[in-house]
Amino acid sequence: MRSAALRGVEAVPVDVEVAVTSGIPAFNIVGMADAAVQESRERIRVALKTAGFSMPPDRVLVNLAPSSLRKTGAGFDLPIAAGILAATGQINPEAVRGGLFVGELSLAGEVRPVSGMLAYALCARDVGCALSCSDHGGTLMPIAGLSVRGMRTVADLRTGEVHDVEPCALADPAAGPDYADVSGNELGKRAFQIAAAGSHGVIMMGPPGSGKTMLASRVPSIMPPLDEEEMLEAALVHSVAGLDIGGILAGRRPFRSPHHSATSAGLLGGGTPVHPGEISLAHRGVLFLDELPEFRTSALQQMRQPMEEGRVCISRAEGVVEFPARFMLVAAANPCRCGHFGDPEHPCKCSDAQVRDYQNRIGGPLLDRIDIHIDVNRVPPSHVMSGRGGTSSAVLRDGVVRGREFASWRKSRESFPETTQGLIGSCHMEESDRAFVEHAALVNAMSGRSIAKTLSIARTIADIDERLEVNRDDLCEALALRVRREGGA
Hints:
- It is a single chain.
- By secondary structure, the chain is α/β, with parallel strands linked by helices.
- It has helices at residues 35-38, 40-50, 77-87, 117-127, 156-159, 186-198, 212-217, 228-240, 246-249, 264-268, 278-281, 297-301, 304-309, 352-360, 364-368, 381-386, 393-413, 420-427, 431-443, 448-464, 472-482; strands at 2-7, 10-21, 26-30, 59-65, 99-101, 104-105, 111-112, 130-134, 148-151, 202-205, 255-256, 269-270, 275-276, 286-289, 311-316, 319-324, 328-333, 372-375.
- The protein folds into 3 domains: 2-159, Ribosomal Protein S5, domain 2; 179-390, P-loop containing nucleotide triphosphate hydrolases (Rossmann fold, 3-Layer(aba) Sandwich); 414-489, Helicase, Ruva Protein, domain 3 (Orthogonal Bundle), CATH 1.10.8.
- A hairpin with a 2-residue loop joins strand 15 (311-316) and strand 16.
C-alpha cells in the first residue's frame, strides 16, 4: 500500500504496511506518526463500521515506512483503512494495487481532500501510481501522465467504483484593480513598470493617503501571466498551505500582503509541521509589506538571505525543509511616525531623533537590497475630483512584456556571466558613461551592491525601449530611482 508524507513542498512516498495477528485486541500505528495520524484510529473504526465493514477483533499493527520520516496530517486515514480491509480480506487486494492513497475519512465514511493534493499528485506520477483520493474539493490541476481515481466513500473500495475528480475552479484572470483608477502618481507608475519588467524590488516613502497602497496593489495587473512552470511552482506552495489555487491556475500572479504584526515564522515559514511563510506564498508574485518600519526588525533582517537566494531553508531536528521564495518585494513606509516629515502641507510633530529612529528600524542592509526607492507625494485635490485616472495597466503591461521579451532575446545571444562584471558588459556603455557612473557612485557613497542595482535598473530601462546600449538618460533615470533614499527621508 502506497501513500505519501509532505516535506516542505514535496510529497515523499510512504509504504503503509498492515499486519493483523492474534493476541490482545489493539490498534497501533508506528513510524514517527504525529497526533493527527494517531487520531486516525478512532476515525477509521467508526468510518469502516458506517460503510458496512468490520474492524478485526485482533491485534492490528500499522507501520509507516520509512520510519525516519515524520508523518503528519489526516491524509493517512484512507490508506490505513484500505490496508486493513485488504489485509482482512474484506476487499479484493487488487483494488488497492498500483494506487497511491491520500484522504481523510469522516465518521460517515466519506473521503475528504487534504492540504497538498497537488504535491501528492506529482509524487504519484513520479512513482508511477494512480492517485486515489476524494472526488470533490477542487484541489487538483491537470497533470500529464497522471491517472486519478476519485472516491466518494470508503465503501467504493468494495465496489471498485471510480468517480471523476472535480476540477479546480479557475478564477477570472482579468479581475483585479487597474492603474487607471489611480489619479496622478505617473512617476510612481513608471517606476513600477520598470520594476515589473526587471523584477526589481521597490520601496515607497510618503505621507499617509498619498496612494502607496493603491500603487502596490495593482502591480500584478501589469505583470505577464504565469507560464506553465511558474504556475506549477506557485500552485504547489499554495496547495501545501491549504489555500485556493484557482487564481494561480488562471495565470494570475500571487499577491501577499501580511500584517505588520506577522512573526518571523509567519513571514519565512515554520511551525510544526513546517508550513510555508508569506515569502514563499508570494513565490513568482508580489510580496507587499505595508508600514515596513512597524514589522519586527528581526523578521525583516531574516529576509535578506532568501531575497538573494530565492529560497528559504528551515532547519529542524529531523532535517532541513526548503521552500521557494522568488518574489518581487514592494514595501511602503511613512517618513516618520506621524507620517508628515518633509510634507510642506502638514508640519511634522516628530523630533530629529525620532525620525532617525523610525527610519533606522528598516535597517541599512535590507534597504540596500531593495532596488528602487521612490517618493510618493499626496495627489492634489483637483486631480482626485477631476476623475482622470491616467495611464492604465494595459499600457504599462505592454512595456513590461516588451522589456521582458527583449531581455530574453538579448540574453540568448550574449554569454555574460551573472556577476557584476557580466552586468557591466551587458550594458554596452560608452567610456564617458562609465566615468559618469563612477562619479555618481563617489558623490553618493554608493556600495558595490548599490552600483550593481543601479546598472541593473538602467539595463531594464533600455530593455523596455528595446536597445542593446545603455545610454546616459537610462543611467540618470536609474540613479533617480536608486539613490533618492540613500540619505534618509
